[in-house]
Design brief:
Layout (H helix, E strand, L loop, with lengths): L7 E7 L2 E4 L8 E2 L1 E2 L4 E2 L2 E4 L13 E4 L21 E6 L16 E10 L2 E4 L15 E3 L5 E9 L3 E6 L3 H14 L12 H5 L9 E4 L3 E2 L1
Antiparallel strand pairs: 1-2, 1-14, 2-7, 3-15, 4-5, 6-7, 8-9, 8-11, 9-10, 10-13, 11-12, 12-13
């Protein structure tokens, strides 16, 4: 949050499903996506996500069927230390200055320096997420999602949620089973829509998540 405002980034991973960070949203809130003139119908936070448990900082935002015209997918394989990655967000494009936040998409490249419950990027590259980038995707070389931005250290290293953590996979599976989410690339949950339109980061699928509006 920035001055009590939840300005974040998210990625459509299916025609009705947006993936972001849990700290960006509140269950019961509504999220409006200007690109599609669409308002969310449901917000589902990871049940184990707390301020103390960053590794589960995930949320799914549900929209009406066929809301998104472009989307990406989860990676087929977990990330590895040393992998080259790409981060995309609608936060500040320079280090923590707030400029352009929420109005311009920024792309940064780095490498994974370590993987525990979280994914950390290398400090040496000097490329990190900034305010407003939370919830944005971390793409691998195949241009599929391996992580979700959770935080960072100014101009140096970023912390991302590992979507392959067992508790996170279970959460995503439950959103498909119980809420009708369509998450392309989620093992064992293939949906016909996912094979119809493969996407990549250059197709501009990450979206800005503005302030949540309570019911």
């Amino acid at each position: 949050r920035i001055d009590d405002r939840a300005l974040c980034t998210g990625s459509f991973v299916g025609p009705n499903t947006l993936l972001t960070a849990s700290h960006c949203v509140q269950s019961g809130s509504k999220v409006f996506v200007k690109r599609y003139e669409a308002t969310s119908v449901k917000v589902i936070e990871h049940p184990e996500s707390t301020d103390e448990v960053e590794s589960n900082d995930l949320a799914i935002i549900m929209f009406a069927d066929n809301t998104a015209k472009k989307w990406t997918r989860l990676a087929a394989q977990p990330p590895k230390r040393g992998d080259e990655i790409q981060m995309i967000g609608y936060g500040s494009c320079t280090t923590w200055d707030g400029a352009d936040t929420g109005t311009r998409r920024c792309i940064g490249k780095n490498k994974i320096s370590s993987i525990t419950d979280m994914i950390r990027t290398a400090r040496s590259a000097g490329v990190a997420v900034s305010p407003g980038d939370s919830g944005g995707p971390m793409f691998n070389s195949d241009e599929t999602i391996v992580g979700v931005a959770s935080g960072g250290y100014a101009g140096s290293s970023s912390i991302h949620v590992n979507v392959f953590l067992p508790s996170n996979i279970k959460f995503l599976q439950n959103t498909v089973r119980n809420h009708g989410a369509i998450i392309c690339g989620l093992a064992g949950f293939n949906h016909p829509a996912c094979d119809a339109q493969p996407q990549n980061p250059s197709d501009d699928e990450p979206v800005r998540i503005p302030d949540p509006v309570d019911n």
